[in-house]
Every structure is written in C-alpha cells, then in structure tokens.
Write a structure and sequence with these properties.
Blueprint lengths: L4 H5 L13 E2 L9 H11 L3 H4 L5 H11 L6 E4 L1 H13 L5 E6 L4 H8 L3 E6 L1 E3 L2 E3 L2 H8 L4 E5 L11 H14 L3 E4 L3 H4 L4 H4 L5 E6 L12 E4 L2 H10 L7 H11 L2 H24 L4 E2 L5 E5 L5 H8 L2 E2 L1 E2 L13 E5 L3 H15 L36
Parallel strand pairs: 1-13, 3-4, 3-7, 7-8, 8-9
Antiparallel strand pairs: 2-10, 5-6, 9-10, 11-12, 12-15, 14-15
Helix pairs in contact: 4-12, 5-6, 7-8, 13-15, 14-15
C-alpha cells in the first residue's frame, strides 16, 4: 500500500486535550461573549437546524456586504484551518517555494510539509517593545519563490504590518503574478485590511475567521475572500456540506448584531490595557497587541508559568514555537481573561512576577475599576487583589 511521501515525512499537528474547567487562556478563545451567545442559543436555534442541511446564500450575502465585495468573491470554509488547506492545495505544487515571515501560526508549516512545499522563512526582528518585519528581505526571497503568506495581525506575535508595508508586498506579488495569502483572522481587533485597497486583485487571497472576535471557535467557521475565478476552483475541492447549519445561523446572528458585539469588546480593551499597566508596574515585559491576546516575558526559572499552572490557568508556552529565531524564548501567550477570571489571573500574575512578599507590597493608592457591558465593577481598589496597606 502506498501512502503519500509528503504525508509520511511530515510531523503530527495535534489539537491539545484540555480540562474545560480550567481558566482557558491558551488558544486565544474569546472570553467576552457568554451573554451574547447565550441569547443566540435561547432565541435563534430550532430543531430543524439539526436535521436539515444548511443554506449558505444568506450568509454569503451578509459577508459580502461586511467585506464590501460582491458575493461571488466569498467562499465559506470549515474554520480558517480548512481555508489554509484548500489554498495551499490550489496554489502550490510539490517542489514550490513559498515565503512565510515567521514566527506564524504553526499549522501553515504543517500543511506546507504535507503538500511538499518548501517554506522560505524570513524572521521578524525584535525592536524595543515590538517586532518588525524586514520588508527588503521578504522581497528578496519572493523573487526566487512561488508565493507569499502573511499573517496580519500576527499570531503569535500580536503585532500588525503597517499599511504601507502591506501595499509594497501586495504590489510586488501582482507585478510578479504570484499569489499572496493574507491571514486576517484577527482583523476585527485591528480594523485594517488589504481588502480596502486590493479587493479586486486576482493574486490576493484573504483568510478570515469567526473563531476570535465573533467567539464561534467551537462551530468551526472561516471564509476566503478572493477573485471569483479562484472561488470556483476552490469549490471543486471543498465539500458541499462542510459548514454546518448552526454555524451559519450563529454567524448571521453575529453580523446582524454588531453593536452588541462592539459593546462586549469594550470590556476586553479596558482589561487588556490594565493588564499591560499592571505587568509593567511589576517588572513583567508585556508586548502590545492588536489582538485578543498578549505576549508576556517569563523569567528563566519559569516562575510566571508556574504561578499560572498553580492557579489552574492554561496559557500557551511559546519557547518551542517553530522558526521563531529565539524571539519567543520564555514567552507566554495569554488570551485576555474575562472579568469572572480576572482576579485569579492577576493574583497569579503578581505572584509570578516575584515583586511582592505574600500578598503585601502592592502599590498604595492604586485603584483598578472596570465597567463592562453590564456596567458592573470588577475591582474597586487594590484590596480586592489581596493587597495590604
């Protein structure tokens, strides 16, 4: 029996098994939409959503309006992972070389290996409190490669590419008639897209997801925005019923209730900013992010990671991330916790910083006040963190 040599030679990309009773901050899941999604479950779901096949057209129409493109430019996929799989199969052949600025979502490396495509890795560079992509190095690598993959904002780094950088890279791919895949799974946190300028470019393939901002990770729904000719070809390899009925209805509910979503995310922005401030006050390096997660620098002894583990908080340990050029050494990627988990998170954070003895020594006179969608206050003052005096 013959098995494809590229599959045999690739590693295994396995989803982690997790205790769902833990504080789950390791996979960048959206912690802020419990009430919003509970309302969807209570008011929108019907038995026929389980026993009938889905109708995709209503969602395609809504998404086209959301992306400001014609309907025929949009393809639904079973999560962004399927979009990655389909695009790499469509665009590249065994032996091709593809430029992929790194570190990046590791599933890309897996699918490139399976398809026999060589990743041409260009590393981000660390500067001050952020990470910078060397555009000349990308352009140089592109000249001897068959395409380019970008992630904007980047996962796991959290930062963005500037508009001018994106324009330079897209225009280079257009001139050379090479495909450019732009992963925009965190687009809603950034509100900057290459679709604003290049939505009709044939070489552009934008991947987006409902897993992050819209909080539908469990339903597996993503989409591709590209030229209609490419959509037609992608439909040949995507299954006719790969996206389920409940995912379609949930996505429609999200797109039709964006004001509610925006209000829910105001709390996320407040909490993210406060966590960065608290980290810096306690000597923890926290990198700014255009996403729903932060990168925190742990110490060599792993004290911060241990403090999270002791409090049953799951975070992503990034030291072993492939093609990271040492940028992620002792880095922890942490999704922004919901208000209900914030107290235990901050207690672990401060303990992991090692900047206090027991729970004393917190800055005097500091108040931490969060008002979210429901107007509730999470922490009124420092004593809510167990601080004394």
């Amino acid at each position: 029996m013959n098995i494809d040599e590229h599959i045999l030679g690739s590693g295994l990309w396995k989803a982690p098994e997790r205790d769902l009773n833990s504080v789950l901050l390791d996979l960048n899941e959206n912690q802020f939409l419990r009430q919003f999604l509970a309302r969807f479950i209570a008011t929108e779901l019907q038995p026929q959503d389980l026993f009938t096949y889905p109708n995709y057209q209503p969602l395609l129409i809504e998404l086209a309006n959301y992306c400001k493109v014609p309907t025929q430019h949009v393809l639904l996929t079973n999560g962004a992972d399927q979009a990655i799989d389909l695009l790499l199969r469509l665009l590249f052949s065994p032996g091709d070389r593809v430029v992929i600025p790194s570190p990046v979502f590791s599933f890309y490396y897996q699918m490139l290996d399976i398809n026999g495509v060589t990743p041409v890795v260009v590393g981000f560079e660390k500067q001050a409190q952020g990470f910078v992509l060397p555009i000349p190095a990308v352009l140089d690598a592109l000249s001897t490669s068959q395409g380019l993959i970008l992630c904007n904002p980047n996962n796991p780094l959290g930062g963005r590419l500037e508009t001018e950088q994106l324009e330079v890279l897209v225009e280079a791919c257009v001139r050379q008639d090479k495909p450019i895949i732009v992963d925009e799974c965190y687009f809603e946190y950034l509100q900057q897209s290459c679709l604003d300028t290049f939505s009709r470019v044939r070489q552009l393939f934008v991947i987006r997801s409902f897993s992050k901002y819209f909080g539908l990770a469990g339903l597996r729904l993503g989409y591709v925005v590209t030229h209609p000719d490419s959509v037609r070809e992608l439909l040949k390899v995507r299954g006719p019923w790969d996206i389920n009925h409940i995912a379609i209805k949930a996505a429609l509910y999200c797109l039709r209730n964006q004001d509610h979503l925006r209000r829910a995310h105001e709390s996320l922005d407040q909490i993210k900013g406060a966590i960065i401030e608290i980290c810096r006050a306690h000597g923890i390096v926290a990198y700014g992010s255009d996403t729903n997660f932060l990168l925190l620098q742990d110490q060599d002894n792993g004290r911060l990671a241990r403090a999270f583990a002791q409090n049953d908080i799951r975070v992503s340990h990034c030291s072993g991330h492939p093609h990271s050029f040492g940028l992620l050494h002792n880095m922890l990627r942490v999704a922004i916790p919901a208000k209900s988990d914030l107290k235990v998170f901050l207690m672990a954070l401060i303990r992991g910083a090692g900047s206090v003895t027991g729970w004393g020594g917190c800055e005097t006179g500091r108040s931490i006040v969060f008002t979210g969608q429901d107007g509730g206050v999470v922490f009124q003052d420092r004593t809510d963190l167990g601080c004394k005096g």
